[in-house]
Specification:
Blueprint (H helix, E strand, L loop, with lengths): L3 H9 L2 H18 L3 H6 L6 H9 L18 H12 L3 H21 L2 H12 L5 E4 L15 E5 L2 E12 L6 E7 L10 E7 L5 E5 L11 E11 L4 E2 L5 H37 L1 E2 L2 E2 L4 H29 L5 H26 L10 H13 L4 H9 L10
Parallel strand pairs: 1-4
Antiparallel strand pairs: 2-3, 3-7, 4-5, 5-8, 6-7, 9-10
Helix pairs in contact: 1-9, 2-5, 5-6, 5-8, 6-7, 6-8, 8-9, 8-10, 8-11, 9-10, 10-11, 10-12
Length: 394
C-alpha cells in the first residue's frame, strides 16, 4: 500500500525535492527498518556505522553551502529528510536533524568566516557535530535567563554551570553554550553564545539515564567547571545570545512539526492497513463508522499539517517567517498527532502494545514533540502576544 504521506507530498513539492525525499526513504527502508527493532530491544543508540552512512549520503550537510562541502539545499530539503526518517523513528530523524537545525544552523547564521571555515566542512560531512546548549536543570522555557554563567576575567571568559537534554551530546565535538553574561541588562540582551570544544578538560558529559523517549538518540548532560575561552569563541555578538537561540529555534520548530507529522503518517498507514485485515463480528473493523472516523481524522490532519508546514518552510527559506507562525505549527502538529496516535492505538487494540507494531514507539516520542524546542504551553504564551498587544500577557 502506498504511504499516504507520499500522496500529499507529490502535490506539494517539486519533482527534484521528491527525488531527494524518496532516496532517503529508500535508505531508511533498506538500512534502518530491518534493524531498528533489534536496537530498540537492546536499548542501543543509533550505531555509529549508520551515522557514518548518513554522513556519506550527505544527510548532515543538507542545508550547508556547497562552498563548505554541503549539499546546498534549503529548509524544505531538511524537512523532507525528517519526514522520510521520522516515519520509522524520531530518534533516527533527530540525529542528523538536530545536527543541522540546532548545530550547524546557528554557525551558518551567525558564525564568522573563520568559524565557518574551521567547522562547517566537517559538520557537513558528518565527521563532527555541534550540540545545542540551551536547556538546564533549572531552566527550560525561560531561555532569557540561563543559570550557566560566563564571566570576563582579563582577556578570557570563564564558563560555569550545567546544560541538559542536549541532543547528540555523545557524538558532538563542540557545544554552543548559551550563558548569562550581563544579568543587569534588559531581557534579550543578557546572554552570549560560545562555541566550546567537548574535549576541554573542564567539560564533562554524561548520557542521561532512564530516558524512555527518543531512546536511540543521544541525550546528554554537559557540565562546565570554569571552562576558559577567548572572544574568538563567541558566536554572534556579545550579549545577543538570545537572538542566536531564538532565530535558530524557528527552524528547529519546523523540524519538530515535521517529525510529528511523520509519526502521524506512520500511524495512519498502520491503522488503515490493519482495519482492512482485522475482522470482528464477521467483518473487517474498518467497516465500523467509529474506526472510519479515527482514520479520516488522521488523514485530514496529515493533509492540513503538511500543507501548512511546507508553506511556512518556504517562508523560512524566503526569510519571511515570524516566530509566532513557527510556534503555532509546532504546537498544532505535535498536539494533534499525539492525540490521534492515542486513538489509533485504541482502534488497533492489544496488538498496538507490541513493540514490533511500532505505534508505542511513536506514541512515546510524540510527547517530546510537545515539550521540545519550547513546551507547547510556553509557546502559546508568546504566540498570543500579537493578538492582544494592548495588555501584558503572563
Amino acid at each position: 500500500m502506498e504511504r499516504r504521506i507520499d500522496h500529499y507530498l507529490e502535490r506539494l513539492v517539486s519533482s527534484d525535492s521528491m527525488t531527494f525525499y524518496k532516496a532517503v526513504c529508500e535508505f531508511a527502508k533498506e538500512r534502518i527498518e530491518p534493524n531498528y527493532l533489534h536496537w530498540e530491544r537492546n536499548h542501543e543508540l543509533i550505531p555509529e556505522d549508520v551515522i557514518d552512512e548518513m554522513g556519506q549520503m550527505g544527510l548532515f550537510g543538507v542545508t550547508v553551502s556547497e562552498s563548505y562541502g554541503g549539499q546546498g539545499g534549503n529548509q524544505l530539503d531538511l524537512i523532507l529528510m525528517g519526514l522520510a526518517l521520522g516515519y520509522h523513528s524520531q530518534s533516527l530523524a533527530i540525529t542528523p536533524g538536530a545536527a543541522m537545525s540546532l548545530g550547524a544552523k546557528p554557525l551558518q547564521l551567525f558564525g564568522t568566516d573563520a568559524q565557518k571555515k574551521a567547522h562547517l566542512p566537517d559538520l557537513a560531512a558528518g565527521k563532527r557535530m555541534f550540540v545545542f546548549g540551551l536547556s538546564e536543570p533549572g531552566r527550560g522555557s525561560d531561555a532569557t535567563n540561563p543559570e550557566v554563567t560566563a564571566k570576563k576575567e582579563g582577556d578570557k571568559w570563564v564558563i560555569k554551570g550545567e546544560k541538559c537534554w542536549s541532543t547528540n551530546a555523545k557524538w558532538s565535538s563542540h557545544v554552543v553554550v548559551h550563558a548569562m553574561t550581563s544579568p543587569e541588562s534588559k531581557p534579550g540582551y543578557r546572554t552570549t553564545c560560545f562555541i566550546v570544544p567537548m574535549n576541554d578538560p573542564n567539560v564533562s558529559y554524561q548520557e542521561m539515564a532512564g530516558k524512555d523517549l527518543w531512546s536511540q538518540s543521544s541525550t546528554g548532560s554537559i557540565s562546565f567547571d570554569e571552562v576558559t575561552v577567548t572572544d574568538d569563541a563567541i558566536l554572534g555578538k556579545e550579549n545577543e545570545g538570545f537572538k542566536v537561540m531564538a532565530k535558530t529555534l524557528n527552524g528547529g520548530r519546523l523540524f519538530i512539526a515535521g517529525m510529528s507529522l511523520a509519526s502521524l503518517a506512520f500511524g495512519l498507514d498502520k491503522c488503515r492497513t490493519y482495519s482492512q485485515e482485522r475482522e470482528q463480528f464477521g467483518v473487517p473493523i474498518g467497516s465500523f463508522q467509529r474506526v472510519q472516523d479515527v482514520i479520516i481524522d488522521m488523514d485530514i490532519t496529515l493533509e492540513q499539517g503538511l500543507t501548512w508546514l511546507i508553506d511556512l518552510t518556504n517562508r523560512y527559506d524566503d526569510n519571511t517567517l515570524d516566530r509566532e507562525s513557527a510556534a503555532k505549527v509546532k504546537i498544532e502538529c505535535s498536539r494533534k498527532a499525539s492525540d490521534h496516535m492515542t486513538m489509533a492505538m485504541e482502534i488497533c487494540g492489544g496488538v498496538s502494545s507490541l513493540d514490533e507494531f511500532g505505534l508505542t514507539r511513536h506514541h512515546r516520542d510524540l510527547f517530546v514533540c510537545r515539550v521540545g524546542e519550547g513546551s507547547n504551553f510556553a509557546l502559546k504564551g508568546f504566540a498570543a502576544r500579537p493578538l492582544m498587544p494592548d495588555i501584558t500577557l503572563q
